Amino acid sequence: MPRKARSVRRACTFTSVELNTACRPSPSTGVDDAPDDGDVAYSIVTAAATSADVIYNGINAADVAVTNIDNDAAGITVSADRPG
Length: 84
Hints:
By secondary structure, the chain is mostly beta strands.
């Protein structure tokens, strides 16, 4: 199956100075193609946190379910045959 999405892997790092700063989003973008092949479901899989703080070390955020919505439509083009 051709690739249907592009994702940017991004780590989120906090220091004691920036604890209240949100991480930047990690975009996942659908890839446009010509075939009408339906919507495709994906999971963005997260990993466990790595931290020197025992309270946060090992916490794993929930994976995220996403769907790439197909915007293509199958069809044919019919034209009248004109006598020469």
